Amino acid sequence: MDALEVAELSFRYGRREALHRVSFRVQPGEFCALLGPNGAGKSTLFALLTRLFVARQGRIAVMGQDLQAAPRAALARMGVVFQQMTLDLDLSVARNLAYFGALHGLSRREAASRAGEVLERLDMAERAGEKARDLNGGHRRRLEIARALMHRPRLLLLDEPTVGLDARARAAITAHVHALAREDGIAVLWATHLVDEVAPADTVLILHQGRMLQRGRAQDIAPEHGLAAHFMALTEDAAA
Amino acid sequence: MSPYLRAMNAILAREALRFVTQRERFLAALVRPLVWLIVFAAGFRAALGLSIIPPYQTYITYEVYIIPGLVAMIQLFNAMQSALSLVYDREMGSMRLLLTAPLPRWWLLFCKLLAGVLVSILQVYAFLGIAYLYGIRLPPMGYVWVLPALLVSGLMLGAVGLFLASTIRQLENFAGVMNFVIFPVFFLSTALYPLWRMAESSTLLRDICAWNPFSHAVELIRFALYMRLNAEALGWVALTFGVFLALALWGFDPARGMMTRKAR
Questions:
Q1: Chain B residues within 8 A of A56 when measuring between CB atoms
Q2: Looking at the 3D structure of chain A, how many domains does it have?
């Protein structure tokens, strides 16, 4: 079963078409990088995938659950890390996780146990008592990823999660999420415009001006270290 | 416990915790009505004579008259503050976290609304406690009777705030709307003067005050403080709550309303 299935998805803001018949699938354990320049439609796609907007054309299904027909079942199977930080800075790391766990129906005991697990998974176990405000940018992001794993989703959506981070923090977060896909079988959709975050074995989706230009393994669509040039050429050609 | 109640508990506890930790917000909420009570009402005591009107059974001082209006004012400001924080949360992204929880959106928004009301009730009781120390003594059971009235009036004002939050795209626009909402709603009501006083200067103003749902919230609280139910006020407050909640839920509907407009 596909972890994520997007079929013929279109969306308009008034007359402006933001997405045009976008289709793709993400399998369990697959790390799928959604590449696109600014304004490509990535944020709109994420808003539709998380049901902040409702698609009027096309279909989205998460682990076989149609987002339109069974939104709660679909949302319960996905974890989301938004581009903007969504932590409560006045709460501790543990309380941020407990709050999210409760929103997903976890009891206090379950939430505490899961919080221990996900913090361990993201190498943050020793920070459970710290206030979110006291964490650096990289650790805040890691906490958001840990939080998105609290309800054990099968699909993880991350919208430009490394924006504003230094190179070291970016590399650490990219490595953590790749490990989640590889070792835990979680399907990952990672939106970015930074091609150096993509590993050769990752699937790449190139979105530009609301259209899906290409889909394939990074190592198949461009030679090693050639993805950036390929991406630039593809999006420039499409713009011309 | 059902997932619905777990989410409600979490949202209420989070708001209460924020309230306790944000001392400045708490103090600001108290200073405003206390200035009205101690400075404004004391100054107007001599200028304004009040006849015996229900629910009062004797002549009262202006400070006593103004208490329900100030209680409602606390709830009004709190509702607008909650709405402002919703607009802020939406701009900053944390609202998205709430709206992507696997629960019906109407329930999540209702919990958020209830959390704001809970905070306003805590503020009101702190204010009534200080007013008591200042010498404004209400019937002891009135402090209990007023609780359900505060819940209903808080829900009504919160729903108005939620509706405003659903229609306003940017934080900057909200400040202007607050001015256009808070001041007319407060001054064109029975918070500061009874209707018969207003009628002496203008029947039009009197009619506006009589129609203003905020007046009904004030009267509901006033009667409850004297252990009486003002059924008409309760009806209007409940109706206003229902209308604005429905409008707010429409505004937050992912297929319509503010969410899609926001992204343009």
A1: 255
A2: 2
